[in-house]
Amino acid sequence: MPRAKGTGKGPTERFNIRLDEDTAGFYRTKANEHGISISEFLRQTLVQGVIAENVQDIEQRLRRLLDEIRAGGQGGGKVEIPDELWLSVFTAEYMLAAIVEARDVQQLYEAQNKAKAKLKRVKGG
Questions:
Q1: Domain residue ranges of the chain, discontinuous segments joined by +
Q2: Stated pTM of the model
Q3: What is the pLDDT of residues 32-85, one digit of tens each?
Q4: Which residues touch 19 (CB under 8 Å, ≥6 apart)?
Q5: DSSP characters for 68-110?
């Protein structure tokens, strides 16, 4: 019996890519090691790339915001931590947990929603 097409998540779209023999063999071997089809392995790999890119974006925002806080706090006064920094921290926390648990790009959006809810709790709202 032929294997069902798609992931069961609604309509799918086909993408064709070309790989040299060595690269294609590498991905086939990796897919076999994981016990999944080459298509599923490549889908998961693409999702992981998107997640990694989002993690890098968060890290850059955190660095920029921490630099701003340090620059504003040199005068010895109380420094208010901006909401964007809290959101970045909480999003990173939930997103990294989601990556480990699901490896699903949709988890990013859920992580952001959880981060916003946690920010409201932290701020007393």
A1: 46-122
A2: 0.50
A3: 999 999 999 998 888 888 877 877 787 788 778 777 776 776 565 666 777 887
A4: 27
A5: HHHHHTTTSS--PPPHHHHHHHHHHHHHHHHHHHT--THHHHH
